[in-house]
């Protein structure tokens, strides 16, 4: 009897240790994600950052194309940019799931948080959906240029004559640390994808918050065309309200960390904390597969 109890106790402790110690695969994934952020954020201009993305797509044997465009910025300046698009597979006649992030940055800092972090997240999802395509949607990934000048890249893609609306556009912007997936959802958490993310995130111990108020980024280009779009960030739960307050023109007593980092000289690789990124990626991939399985 004693040996039996000892065995059960050992099994119980092993289970606890498995829950408390990160899996080696998660550590490796966090390191790989951080390295991808580094590869993009070291680029000081758009072409260099685009080249880092192209190199990763090539390494994954994912065919891609560059789409050049010209547009007028918020300041009235005529600007030339280049979006990168890649097909990941899925039924050729199926509706399109488009996943994207902007790769350009402001002059201050290295744009690691804003938005090499989002780019690295899209590349990680691209690898997953290339290896195992969705059953009911074809998938493309997009990397937008000149978001910081007025969402110019995504607006150019949406505004292309004859362009059909995707079944859903999923955007990633500012995905650098934290315990909570923050989702821009026009249905305030009631959309099908939001429900899947909630069901996946809570048992995994990852926070989830969804709402229709969110900082301006590329999902707006799709919404303005009345196309379905959502957006995700990864940050600490305590930062969400303060971030919303600042974008609403208010001044919280203690500005959240994310707002002290983006668009400053502090937006560097050292500011990121990738420990929770693998869990967030697992939740997002599983949620998108759940969504694909039941989406009309």
Task: Compose a concise summary of this entry.
The chain has 296 residues and is of the alpha/beta class. 44% of the residues lie in helices and 20% in strands.
* Number of continuous helical runs: 10
Class derived from helix and strand content: alpha/beta
* Annotation, overall tally of beta strands: 8
Beta-strand portion reads 15-25%
Q: Report the C-alpha radius of gyration, rounded.
A: 20 Å
Count of individual domains: 1
One letter per element, helices H and strands E, the order comes to HHHEEEHEHEEHEHEHHH
- Mind telling me the CATH class? Alpha Beta
Could you estimate the helical fraction of the residues in percent? 40-55%
**Largest β-sheet summary:** 8 strands, mixed
- CATH homologous superfamily (4th level) name: Zn peptidases
Strand order of the largest sheet: 1-2-4-3-5-8-6-7
Report how far the terminal alpha carbons are from each other: 56 Å
Task: List unreliable stretches of 5+ residues.
Answer: 1-22
Shape: globular
- The overall pLDDT, averaged over residues, is 91
> What is the annotated CATH architecture?
3-Layer(aba) Sandwich
The name of the CATH topology is: Aminopeptidase
């Amino acid at each position: 009897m004693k040996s039996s109890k000892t065995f059960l106790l050992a099994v119980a402790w092993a289970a606890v240790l498995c829950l408390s110690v990160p899996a080696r695969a998660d550590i490796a994934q966090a390191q790989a994600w951080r390295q991808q952020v580094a590869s993009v954020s070291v680029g000081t201009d758009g072409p260099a950052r685009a080249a880092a993305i192209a190199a990763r797509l090539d390494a994954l044997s994912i065919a891609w194309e560059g789409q050049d465009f010209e547009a007028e910025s918020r300041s009235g300046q005529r600007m030339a940019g280049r979006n990168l698009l890649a097909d990941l597979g899925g039924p050729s006649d199926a509706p399109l799931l488009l996943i994207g992030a902007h790769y350009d940055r402001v002059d201050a800092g290295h744009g690691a948080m804003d938005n090499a972090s989002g780019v690295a997240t899209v590349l990680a999802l691209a690898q997953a959906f290339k290896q195992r395509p969705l059953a009911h949607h074809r998938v493309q990934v997009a990397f937008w240029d000149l978001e910081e000048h007025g969402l110019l890249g995504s607006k150019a893609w949406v505004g292309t004559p004859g362009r059909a609306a995707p079944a859903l556009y999923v955007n990633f912007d500012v995905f650098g640390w934290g315990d909570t997936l923050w989702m821009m959802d026009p249905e305030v958490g009631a959309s099908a994808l939001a429900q899947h993310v909630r069901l996946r995130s809570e048992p995994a111990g990852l926070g989830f918050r969804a709402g229709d108020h969110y900082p301006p980024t590329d999902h707006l280009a799709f919404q303005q065309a009345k196309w379905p779009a959502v957006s995700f960030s990864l940050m600490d739960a305590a930062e969400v309200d303060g971030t919303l307050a600042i974008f609403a023109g208010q001044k919280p007593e203690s500005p959240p960390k994310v707002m002290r980092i983006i668009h400053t000289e502090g937006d560097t690789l050292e500011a990121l904390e990738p420990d929770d990124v693998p869990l967030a990626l697992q939740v997002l991939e599983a949620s998108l597969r759940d969504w694909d399985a039941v989406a009309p």
